[in-house]
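seq as requested:
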Amino acid sequence: MPYQEVNEFRSRWERLELVRREKFDISLPRALRDNNVDMWIHVMKLGSPDALAKDLGAGADVLAPRPSGGSCGYFIFTDRGGDRIERAILGGEVLRGDGGYDLIGDEADLRKFVEERDPKNIGVNMSGRIAVGDGLSHTGYLRLVEALGDKYAARLVSAENVIADFRDRRVISEIVEYGKLGEVTRRLIERALSNEVITVGKTTLEQVAWWIKDEMLGLGIEPIFTKLFMPQVLYSARASAEEYDSPDYVFQRGDLFQFDFGFEFMNLGSDIKRTAYVLPEGEIAVPAGLQHAWDEGLRARGVLRGSIKVGRTTGETLEVIGKNFEDAGFVWVNLVNDAGFSGGWAKVWSEALEARGFSDDEAHKTQVSTDCHCVGNTGDSEIEAGPCISGFRSAVHHLVLKPNHIFAFELFANTAIPEWGGHRVRLGIEDNAILTEDGVQFFYPPNERILLIH
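struct tokens:
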């Protein structure tokens, strides 16, 4: 057979298909059996994008001969014993080959299909906890119930834990892709926070945000964030908070800022931070107090890394982390409210600090908190679709940390800076990592320094 060059589009499709087949073989059996689900029916509709469309069929499509009548496609996974889970599509087709599926049939065959297998329970994509598991519409549910009949409709349960486990049990092909994603993200954000992009006294916060989005388009990548995320000033020697909170704020000498950024690629999402400092005239390094604060953040990262192990729930892990931080001389600030939705950072931080108790003789200590959240398959939009080690994500504290869990390794370190009149700066340190049997490992070189703008 003559050699046929594989173009970039086909290469991505084949790699996604490899991921799906591997997850069907390796991740799916445990996801079903660990959650005691006999059959998983994932309902999709043409024209109504589902969060698991790429997971279940990058090369599969929903057929809807009667879309105005609510026609559905059913992706069905049945535990019939043995090592392999049976996979079927009723009301769909695959682009090329079998797509990893055993059977492809018509939507009208659903009741007969289910009756022949007689599952004790049937997981479906409806959830009050995670959005990615809640794709089944009300009309789709009514159609499903009618198609199954009373006997099997009574056996419907939520497939939310199956979906969370299926996604969180990463296979090697996913891990390889994530390593590529992380490195590209790191390079882009570090370029964005450099003199290549930022000219002191001219460049605005918003211009940096547009630059990085345009660079992504040049790489053939669509940004995951619809909101225009831009660098956030943490401290300015010249401007007030009211001034530097504006998208039109121009970078000034003495500014300390950070950029929280990520994007979706190959059905995976990144989420990392980098911090930069604009050097005042005549200076060649960050102030000693700021460097101490940064070093404290890195020391806290080491404590956090050693506290996360396979086999514990995220709630249990959070307790271990708090104890280890306190034993290492930090003040543990267990945030129980999300700053983005509960009044801002100052409010939630002070509430958590008050709950812990704080005395004047601890003023020299660095205060630390953590939000090691799941990054999901499309990045920041799916934070709680899997295990999260955070005080304000208690809905997932029962989930057990498993091998190959990919997550945002994120912490916040709040330290007083003597050169800035004792003003405290809350530094966010975040990279993407994977939890293995040997502990936490990074996909790419993690953040080790404050970037300098000349």
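The mean pLDDT is 92.
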